[in-house]
Amino acid sequence: NHLPELCFAPYGGRGRRRRCLRCRCCPASMSTKPVLTYFEGRGLADLGRFCLGLAGVDYEDRFLKEREEFVALIETGVLMFDQLPLLQMDGLNIIQSGALVRFVGRRFDLEGKTLEEKTKCDMICAGASDFYSALNRGQFQSDTAQYFESLKAKTLPRYLGALQKQLAGPFLVASTPTIADAVALCAIESLEDYIPGSLAAYPKLTEWRKAMREVPNMAAFLASPHRLRKNDDAYVAEVAKVL
Fold first, then answer.
1. Could you give the 3-state DSSP secondary structure of residue 111?
2. pLDDT score at 192
3. H-helix or E-strand containing 224?
4. What is the pLDDT of residue 191?
5. 119 and 180 Cβ atoms separated by less than 8 Å
6. Phi-psi region of 77 (alpha: psi -120 to 50; beta: other; left: phi over 0)
7. Mean pLDDT in the chain?
8. DSSP 8-class letter at 8
9. Are 179 and 104 in contact (CB under 8 A)?
10. pLDDT value at position 110?
């Protein structure tokens, strides 16, 4: 009756259950750190990783490698919509990248102080997430180079122009970094990976990026193992294998 990776395996009578010590993700063997479960690549989980990085959270990345692991995870009931990423923290099972981002913002007071700031933070997070998703889709296209070239005419000016207009101060929402800055930086770093030099026409964004990369928590995150390789063909194949 053993389910690989994630389970409470049944035994005996009267419905008693024992912890399955062979399962690396079971409560018996889970780290006391928050755990972020996803594929071994950036993808949608990177939005959460950048926010956790800004917050200075010491967490564990856990990667699914086999279809059986994903099925077993679904069967535990922790994935509300049977989707990843999954952040397990403070006794919560948090799915959906947007919910994960907002949780970190609330949990660590990184979403601004006033209602206006919080609302602006939400809008920037949503827009920057859309921008990141557009970039993230590139590696899944049949002609990656052509896809990224197609973004230059409308997508890049739309999002880069909008973000630059928000920079009335050193950061996008407040005098200190918020999750809006973390999510936007996630998108900008991805942009520079896939279409380098794209910030040349946006000097304020260039300065903001430099300042964000120098924020101590963010600098530590970018230099850590949590900063995974950019999506490549091997990542695409691995995702297809698991799903």
1. coil
2. 94
3. none
4. 95
5. no
6. left
7. 87
8. -
9. yes
10. 98
φ and ψ at residue 82, rounded to 5 degrees:
55, 40
Report whether 73 contacts 6 (CB < 8 A). Answer: yes
Count of other CB atoms within 10 angstroms of residue 103: 19
Q: Kindly state the tokens that stand for 122.
A: 């939400």
What is the SS3 assignment for 178?
coil
d(CA 134, CA 177): 24
Residue with tokens 């933070």: 121
Distance separating alpha carbons of residues 137 and 90, to the nearest angstrom: 32
Other CB atoms within 10 A of residue 80 CB:
12
User: What gap in Å lies between CA 127 and CA 61, rounded to an integer?
Assistant: 26
Total length of the chain: 243
**pLDDT value for 38:** 95
Q: Which residues contact 160 (CB under 8 A, 6 or more apart)?
A: 198, 199, 201, 202, 205
**Residue 40 token pair:** 């071994």
Backbone dihedral angles phi then psi of residue 152, each to the nearest 5 degrees: -70, -30
Write the pLDDT tens digit of every residue in 167-225. 989 999 999 999 999 999 999 999 999 999 999 999 999 999 999 999 999 999 999 99
Residues 6 or more apart whose Cβ sits within 8 Å of residue 32: none
Q: How far apart are CA 92 and CA 48, in angstroms?
A: 15
Cα dist. 72→64, 84, 151 in Å? 11, 13, 38
Low-confidence ranges of the chain (pLDDT < 70): 1-31
